[in-house]
Specification:
DNA-binding, Four Helix Bundle (Hemerythrin (Met), subunit A), mainly alpha, Arc Repressor Mutant, subunit A, homodimer, 2 domains
Chain lengths: ~220, ~220
DNA sequence: CTGTTACACATTACATACAATCTTCTGCTA
DNA sequence: TAGCAGAAGATTGTATGTAATGTGTAACAG
């Protein structure tokens, strides 16, 4: 038995590494909606051939983080108001499911992780560190998703979270972060109580509130 | 203004056509779980180069209809019992959302389409035509999804329906098709009544029942 | 000066070439 | 005969070549 179990799809390929780089640049706003994803340009910049770059860009397109037109290349996907509402409708549903499923799993381990995220979140708010706030927030949601132990949920929700983040980053990073923190605590409380229904409701409410805050003042 | 409005991503590319071919073969069981998706073999069979074939296979992998290992190629994804439960948990949630959203849209047009599907379904059952039953069933679900007018929901649910179909096709095609038909009618009734909550519940119940029937005798 | 057309350029989509890795078969050893 | 080493073959991953399509600019006509 090997010590370091590789995931089913190894991340050793150049195409996967390029994908990670591009996804990272989109999510940290090094690349913003509308920016071109020129295959030859990226290839020369990253000092490799066009094949893995093209493969990475295609994957972004399939996942919806980029949009392409025939013979005209791909651009970073924009998320307008209507899109955002659509994204959040699905996200709300799936994050509710994730919270509900998480209760059925190893609650003890999950609670530890969520508490750590909340502690980081609190510290980041105190330090007024927007990047840290965002990181703690994402860690919370990711922990919930992981704890659901449903790879299909993971696959469905992952790209949605990416698109949601693209949109959120267009506005202020952290609007009323204290409210998000309070909502996270409510989710945690429901999980600690072992109440799947309450966890689902709390998660759905949180997602709805995030959207409402984002829309509250363009 | 042009007459034939192309979708954003045109389907003219060879890679897209190959994707359609492969997806079709998987969903009609010309290719079954575990079958290798050999790029050079498919390329020679389809009489084109490996580039578009590779791109199509990669897309199937991203969408989860195929699984690959590094340097060992891709195979048609298998869906075991645990996977199936996971798929249906997500599918239930998303189809419920789709039904709920569909009520908000053009109900009149939707009702017409759903009625047509139900009529086809009824006729197919009378004729004991399993392929037609399956087609009518899929048309119903597809109409519901389309009527939700949420491209992100579409993108999330599409691959799930594919994986669900892979699994269902492993068993009998149509178990108690009359029950599925009755459940479809219940969903339609809720939509006609303009009751989003009832539509969501009916859709969720239907998905759960489909899974239960599939599992009821391996 | 404005609008159109033609041409040069860049990029995409596909084809092919090469290198690294895996599988499988063969033949040797114990 | 069973088991393993090793080479041959095939396939994947990456690089590069080529044809087709789209874009942008500049010259020219009105």
């Amino acid at each position: 038995m090997s010590v370091d179990e590789q995931p089913l799809i190894s991340r050793q390929r150049l195409a996967d590494q390029v994908y990670d780089v591009l996804r990272g640049r989109i999510l940290d706003r090094s690349l913003v909606p509308g920016d071109r994803l020129s295959v030859p340009l990226l290839a020369s910049e990253l000092d490799l051939s066009r094949s893995p770059v093209r493969e990475a860009v295609q994957r972004l397109v399939v996942e919806g983080l980029a949009e392409e037109q025939l013979h005209r290349g791909a651009r970073v996907a924009g998320v307008d108001a209507a899109d955002l509402a659509d994204v959040f409708a699905v996200r709300q549903t799936l994050e509710g499911l994730a919270a509900s499923l998480a209760v059925a799993g190893d609650t003890a381990g999950l609670v530890t992780v969520l508490r750590a995220s909340i502690a980081d979140h609190t510290a980041a708010i105190a330090a007024d560190d927007e990047k840290a706030i965002l990181a703690a927030d994402q860690a919370f949601h990711q922990a919930l998703l992981t704890a659901a132990h449903n790879p299909h949920l993971d696959r469905a929700l992952g790209p949605l979270l990416g698109r949601a983040q693209i949109a959120m980053l267009s506005g202020d990073l952290s609007r009323w972060p204290r409210k998000a923190l309070a909502e996270h605590k409510a989710i945690l409380a429901a999980i600690r109580a072992g109440d799947a229904g309450a966890a689902e409701t709390a998660a759905r409410d949180h997602v709805a509130a995030v959207l409402a805050r984002h829309l509250s003042r363009g």
